[in-house]
Fold this sequence. Notes:
Layout: E1 10-11, E2 18-19, E3 25-26, E4 29-30, H1 34-45, H2 50-54, H3 77-80, E5 84-87, E6 92-97, H4 104-111, E7 120-126, E8 131-136, H5 143-152, H6 163-197, H7 199-203, H8 211-232, H9 234-245, H10 252-273, H11 279-299, E9 316-320, E10 326-330, E11 339-342, E12 352-354, E13 358-362, E14 373-376, E15 380-381, E16 386-387, E17 392-396, H12 404-410, H13 412-415, H14 424-451, H15 456-466, H16 470-489, E18 492-494, H17 497-505, E19 508-511, H18 513-517, E20 518-529, H19 534-546, H20 550-559, E21 571-574, E22 578-583, E23 586-591, H21 593-596, E24 609-613, E25 616-627, H22 631-639, E26 643-647, H23 659-662, E27 667-669, H24 674-687, E28 692-696, H25 702-707, E29 710-715, E30 727-730, H26 737-769, H27 776-804
Helix pairs in contact: 6-8, 6-11, 8-10, 8-11, 9-10, 10-11, 10-15, 11-16, 11-27, 14-15, 15-26, 16-26, 16-27, 17-26, 19-20, 26-27
Amino acid sequence: MEHTHTHTDLKCAHCGDECRDNSLHIEDKVFCCQGCQSVYLLLKENNLCDYYELNKLAGNSLKGKSFDDKFAYLDVAEIAQPLYDFYSPSEARITLYLPSIHCSSCIWLLENFHKIKKGVLQSRVQFLKKELALVFDPSQVSLRQIVELLATIGYEPSITLNANDADTYHKKRSKELYALLLRLGVVGFALGNVMLMSFPAYLGIDAADQALYGNLFRYLNLALSVPVVAYGASPFWYSAWTSLRQKNLNIDVPITLGILMLFVRSVIETVFMNAEGYYDSLSGLVFLLLIGRYVQQITYEGLNFQRDYKSYFPLAATVVLPSGAEQIKSVNNLVPTDHLRLRPQELVPADSILISENALVDYSFVTGEAEPQHCAKGQTIFAGGRIMQNIAELTVQKPCSHSYLTQLWNKDEFVKPKDTPTTRTAELFAHYFTYITLAIATAAGGFWLIFDSSLALNAFTAVLVVACPCALTLSMPFTMGMAMAILGKNKFYVRNSDVIQHLAEANSIVFDKTGTLTDPTANELKYEGRNLTAAQWTVFTSMASHSTHPLSQSLARLLKTRYAVQSLDEWHEVLGCGIECLVDGQLFRLGKIDWVSADRNTVTNDKNIALGIDGTLVGYFGVQQVLRKGVRTMLTDLATHFRLALLTGDNKGGLRDIESVLSLIPTVRTNQQPADKMHYIAQIQADEKAKVVMIGDGLNDAGALRQANVGIALTQDAAQFSPSSDVIADAQSLYRLADFVLYARTSVKVVKWSFLLSLVYNFVGLSVAVSGHLSPVFAAVFMPLSSISVVTFGVGMTALYARKFKL
Length: 807
């Protein structure tokens, strides 16, 4: 008899995942799990099925979701109170971070959340921040009930130890954005009025006709330009001054020089020559520069990269009092001698001593080692370990702030700042551009000082006015902003534009194996053994469903598509061995082969799941890790452009399931600890001048991600990622890595082409400026035209190449 893990063409009507069969359905709609079906029914009962019309298959997968008492700590006032923005007995306000928000359907559903839950008065979504602002009546609905319902419909809030840090970060970013918008408003107001009062000059109205109001308009334009220069352009003044103090020339130095010359020359022409000046060009230039800054800033708001190890930790833990009663206590308040009770899948919040007889602990979160460790009574269990089976009792040894995990994170080599300069090409360009511009201006002034002194000052200032790298400055944020938006649309989220440049320069790629090249949620199971009766399969299905072991859960998902699950009265899970059950006088066992039966026969793989009845091995399921979609093609494509390496915490036996692609990876290292990965990357960077991209998926990769030129954190959920990453990549999009890197290279090329186009414009402008006859109308038309055309070129080419790469 043989059972295999198969896929069908059936798609879940809620989330779009593949369904094994149509056993879960409502009318013509099929669902992949009970969770998705329940959410559909909930929305249907509240007449909210328009959710699916806005965006087909918009829901989030709920397979494997189980909440139980996960949010019980929210019933504790001491823990919940700091989370509120405002609280009274009749009204409470709270802002929750919902990482699963991803489309217009999410916004629509969450803003109608008050229709689903009685007691919720108002709900508002801030899409860029992925935040839900709620107003509710605590006398009708509790915070725990709200959070549980949100989790049930696929929008589980992220409530962790660093929630306050994230809130501070968002508040800081909001203030920065507000200040930028205020400057844009002031400069925009000035620009509109300056252009309005400059129409007589644009239309060439005779001087005699505008004599009455000409001087008044000119001085009003001068007055309006003062806040433009002093307030609107202040970020550029500050940046340029900081650069000069450090004896360096950044891109803002020539920009501020151009702004200063525009203003000074305009004042001279207005006060001493009764001329129009260049106030419209000045206001337009600053306005466009601020728009560029705004585009850049909102592009960075998509995800918060400012997280540390605490992002993974819960707010509270269950403490057992001397009386035996349970108390929920804030993790920050845990002290040595506290007695913890942790349930399966819960993280150990602080270094502790095991007081249960034994425990199975998964340390992959910290070390990267995929195989869970068996721990005996009296053994130290370090923070970050995940309890895998049965309830574990522990005694806290150190506070959370002094745990091994905290020390690991705080090591100098793990937290040293990464050398990520602002775009080096632009800085190099600015350095030489400033000196060349000053040289041309001086030469032009000197020439006319000899041949026609009346034109000398005009020529000198005109060169500084026209030779402003504003087109270049605007091209950078708009082009890179477009590239970041396109990559983000494909679930490849980049921290900032510097990362794109580093990605374009990369020549080496290092992979972690566990959870990166392989998909831990898609283990393939193949049965070999006797033909069992339906009743026997039902027992084994029920046993697998009762077990908390990941392999048992994978088996349960497979068997439940064919057999029912029944309640078991006499069952027992043996730590590190498996689960056994007595049914009708027969002893059924499911687990390790040595435990199930002494008769192994030809079965040698300890990772297989054995089935036994009364001490006899009746069959087993072979477990094989599955490579992620398109990994072989991806590695083949990357091998032609990059040097590849694989660093894994697994031993050599753990590579058995990926042998088919190892020939594409020249360097493979096993049993790698976090520091080993980081030191390997540092070594090839120093010895071989390698530009390294590191791809990992756990906290154990934090040091390597930071050490690499570009650290890519791979995740099933874009908000649950490793700290220290430069890029957050959805696991399902890994197979497109070659496209992403090549697109980054192309985007940098587009910026360089924009540089050349900017130089062409500057050459044309300088040819007029050095003549000493630069007119205000020419400056008013030429400067905005050059900036807008360069921006259009950069954005247009970036979008065009995105189509080429099918992004």
